Amino acid sequence: MAQAGSAKPAAASATPGQVRIIGGQWKRSRLPVAARPGLRPTPDRVRETLFNWLGQDLHGRHCLDAFAGSGALGLEAASRHAAQVLLVERDSGLCRQLQAHAQRLQAGNVRIQCGDGLAALRAPCAQQPQGWDVVFLDPPYAAGLDEPALKLARRALAPEGWLYWESGREWGQAELAALGWQRRHYLRAGQVHAHLLALAPAQEGP
Questions:
Q1: Which residue from 147, 139, 132, 136 is spatially nearest to 181, judged by alpha carbons?
Q2: What are the pLDDT digits (tens) for 39-90?
Q3: C-alpha dihedral over 151, 154, 155, 159, to 10 degrees?
Q4: What 3-state DSSP class applies to 66?
């Protein structure tokens, strides 16, 4: 397990109601975000650290953003040349906003799906039979989705893939291992507890 990192809360870099893409082909693009209770776009500082962990260029990678919300994570991945990004969001108004963002950016590598994030993790992906290379999970903190989402994500992720997961608290290696995950990186920024996870090796029998 890598040593846990830490981060201070990010300074505001976009006005309220906006997110800013911080890297890649759409760097510095500012996108409006509709006001929704509990909607928490991932801060710039956290996204910057995340893409230091993943690598700045995601060429060839297929990504799923299962609780897309503002689209900050999935659109950041698409800006960094991911081959395909599927953004799933159940709020119809946010879905329309994500579609408008994709059209504005001329994002041919982005698909928007209005639906449930858990269902997207559960459903087999015809385009990705071996699983997604990167899965982003940022469910509402108060919805009790952490453990169900972590269990379903094991099926959705490619064997050598990465799971980025935001939670309202830090999860330690022991409790993650019980769910089949290894914690590779961690940071806290304000109320955001960001984890980068990989699938734990299969346990060999006696």
A1: 147
A2: 788 889 999 999 999 998 999 999 999 999 999 999 999 999 999 999 999 9
A3: -170
A4: coil
Which ranges constitute the DSSP H helices of the chain? 44-54, 72-79, 92-105, 117-122, 146-156, 173-177
Look up tokens 């309202």; give the residue: 168
Rounded Cα distance between 49 and 17, Å, is 22
Closest CA to 42 of 70, 23, 65, 64: 70
Instruction: Tell me the CATH number for domain 43-199.
Output: 3.40.50.150
Which of the 8 DSSP states describes residue 32? E
Query: Is 80 in contact with 57 (CB distance < 8 Å)?
Result: yes
CA distance 111 to 7: 32
Q: Per-domain residue ranges for the chain?
A: 43-199
Instruction: For residue range 4-43, list pLDDT tens digits in order.
Output: 333 333 333 445 588 999 999 999 999 988 878 777 888 8
Distance CA 69, CA 26 (A): 19
